[in-house]
Design goal:
Elements: H1 2-5, E1 8-12, H2 17-32, E2 36-41, H3 46-58, E3 63-67, H4 85-92, H5 95-105, E4 109-113, H6 118-125, E5 130-134, H7 138-148, H8 150-153, E6 156-158, E7 163-166, E8 173-176, H9 189-203, E9 206-209, H10 217-226, E10 231-233, H11 251-259, E11 266-270, H12 279-292, E12 295-300, H13 304-310, E13 313-316, E14 319-323, H14 328-333, E15 337-342, H15 346-354, E16 359-361, H16 368-378, E17 382-384, H17 402-413, H18 417-437, H19 442-458
Helix pairs in contact: 2-3, 5-6, 6-9, 7-10, 12-17
Bound molecules: uridine-5'-diphosphate.
Enzyme class: transferase
Organism: Rhynchospora pubera
GO molecular function, one term: UDP-glucosyltransferase activity
């Protein structure tokens, strides 16, 4: 402990909520273990992060912020799932300031997001060990590795009905071809980017994974022993999270509304920070919800018109609609929440499980279809709404009809055997998650060993 107190660690997140939130929690976890944690950011993103870390300061822990002197104009803030040219250009502009920061401060180690592969080279030129931070779990990482190598490992067959069978993992994985990103079968520009991510992982000292052993033990073993990657799991990091400051818009009104409802009677709906279902899809969801006749809280991204004219919180029928940023972790922690319709972003999955909330899966892009497989087929803590196509819900693409939505909602929310079974399974997993981060738990032990290893690199 005395040695680790002197450790100085840099954290460099990707500027998107699903990457930033767990990275800040990770920086806090290191601070709790006695390290000096410094988060790197850009001038445009400073206030966003400052608000988050103020919460830790209030609790007596110190996380520092280092603003890179960059001319980036905000394009480094990822607001859509695509890695746009503007975003990649903004990343290029950060190479030099990142290099200067390492030279000036000489941290003992730098933890950078998986999607910042270029940080590996700069860290190694400065002889500073780099740890890569994965914002997905071992299950998804193992599937991606198998699919990436399918041409050479013969683990993938596609049958006439376009069903893809993936062998060689702890479970046989079966998915429709339409549920996979097209880069699995055709090389595209994005494939090159993902190759650079893998290459940077192989060159880094190790990876940190936001998960806990008991959640996906077979895949933790598969990833570390069979694939042979060095990785530490120290999550779920959402359990390091602190309550949001009361300044969050409408927090009090939301809590009062939740307080007025019965135990586990409300469905929470949110598709993450980057997804925008089409208008026609939103209408089908609205009808499905109405027909299922359960209370709900639905988070929608606001249009400009919404912000100017309608405010952000409205009651509609049996629901509360939040247009804008919702205090998701707080909502999921409330005892009246009985289900979560989610796009299966990894943070949302973990937040749901650690709050003992069964999941209704609505995957859209990235690794979300693999997360759905884990949630439904492996862990049994959720049911599928039944999405068949990978991709954002652009006009002309698959629309999930109101009857299908209603059926999914009823399976998770109607009283009966299925709700009870899901509830028991997710509750048991929640208990395991809490034990994992306690003293002596699997993630806590990993974290202590990781700290020792970083200390050893220094001496
Ligand atoms: N989130 C939130 N309020 C919102 C939308 C998202 O607090 O209105 C948080 C959510 O709790 C999670 C993160 O943003 O921590 C989203 O990450 P996830 O991996 O679930 O999805 P992504 O946004 O990366 O697709």
């Amino acid at each position: 402990m005395t040695k680790s107190k002197e450790l100085h660690i840099f954290f460099f997140p990707l500027m998107a909520p699903g990457h930033l939130i767990p990275m800040i929690n990770l920086a806090n976890l290191f601070a709790l273990h006695g390290a000096k944690s410094t988060i790197l950011t850009t001038p445009k993103c400073t206030s966003l992060i400052q608000n988050q870390i103020n919460r830790f300061h209030l609790s007596g822990h110190c996380i520092n912020l280092l603003v890179l002197s960059s001319s980036a104009k905000g394009n480094e803030n990822l607001t859509s799932p695509e890695l746009s040219t503007c975003f990649l250009k903004a990343m290029d502009d950060l190479h030099k300031p990142f290099d200067q920061a390492l030279k000036e401060h000489q941290p003992n180690c730098v933890v950078t997001d998986m999607y910042l592969p270029w940080t590996q080279e700069i860290a190694s030129q400065n002889s500073i060990p780099r740890l890569l931070f994965h914002t997905m779990g071992y299950f998804a990482l193992s599937v991606i590795d198998t699919l990436d190598n399918h041409a050479t490992n013969g683990c993938v067959n596609v049958d006439q009905d376009e069903m893809v069978m993936v062998h060689g993992l702890p479970h046989l994985l079966q998915m429709k071809k339409s549920q996979l990103h097209d880069t699995v079968f055709t090389r595209k520009k994005f494939s090159e980017f993902m190759e650079s991510v893998t290459e940077s992982e192989l060159r880094s000292h190790a990876a940190i994974v936001n998960t806990f052993y008991e959640l996906e033990s077979q895949y933790a073993d598969h990833y570390r022993k069979k694939i042979g990657r060095k990785a530490w799991h120290v999550g779920p990091l959402s359990l390091v999270n602190l309550p949001s400051p009361s300044q969050i818009n409408c927090l009090e009104r939301i809590m009062t509304w939740l307080d007025s409802k019965q135990l586990k009677s409300i469905l929470y709906i949110c598709f993450g920070s980057l997804s925008h279902p089409t208008k026609i899809q939103l209408e089908e969801i609205a009808h499905g919800l109405e027909n299922a006749n359960h209370h709900f809280i639905w988070v929608m991204r606001p249009t400009e018109e919404d912000v100017q004219e309608k405010g952000i919180l409205t009651e509609q029928g049996k629901g509360l609609v939040i247009k804008g940023w919702a205090p998701q972790a707080e909502i999921l922690s409330h005892s009246s929440i009985g289900g979560f319709m989610t796009h299966c972003g990894w943070n949302s999955v973990l937040e749901s499980i650690t709050r003992s909330v069964p999941i209704l899966t609505w995957p859209m892009f990235a690794e979300q279809f693999y997360n759905e497989k884990l949630v439904v087929d492996v862990l049994g803590v959720g049911v599928k709404v039944g999405v068949q196509e990978w991709g954002m819900r652009e006009e002309g693409k698959e629309v999930i009809g109101r009857d299908v939505v209603e059926r999914g909602v009823r399976r998770v929310m109607d009283e009966g055997e299925e709700k009870q079974r899901l509830g028991e399974r997710v509750n048991s997993m929640k208990e395991k998650a809490r034990r994992a981060v306690e003293k002596g738990g699997s993630s806590c032990v990993e974290m202590e060993r990781l700290m020792q290893e970083i200390c050893a690199w220094r001496s």
